[in-house]
Design goal:
By secondary structure, the protein is an alpha+beta fold. The protein has 2 helices and 5 strands. The protein has helices at 51-61, 70-73; strands at residues 8-17, 21-30, 39-49, 78-87, 90-95.
């Protein structure tokens, strides 16, 4: 019998790709055995990303990568601190100031 992970939590997630992408966060995932119903709650302590970082992120998250969409390229350098929650096709953000 194969066990499946239905819930997953990480309290100290750190991702860095050169100076192009830096993420410090905590996150909880629920209902992972049903991807269309999977729920995500993240506390983003720090997100700093530039165009090369956006390319890196999209390339590693999109199944059939064919380039970063123009709308994401136009965002330029970004930083964010706050919460992200919802379903993978419907996320809501709350920014901390």
């Amino acid at each position: 019998m194969t066990e499946q992970v239905n819930q997953f939590a990480v309290s100290d997630l750190k991702i860095k790709a050169n100076d192009d992408l830096q993420i410090l966060a905590g996150a909880t995932f629920q209902d992972l055995t049903h991807p269309s119903d999977a729920y995500f709650l993240g506390d983003i302590k720090k997100l700093v990303i530039n165009r090369a970082g956006m390319d890196f992120l999209v390339r590693n998250l999109v199944k059939n990568f064919s380039g970063t969409p123009d709308v994401l390229k136009r965002l330029g350098n970004m930083s964010f601190r706050g919460e992200v929650s919802g379903y993978f096709n419907d996320l809501v953000t709350l920014r901390y100031f």
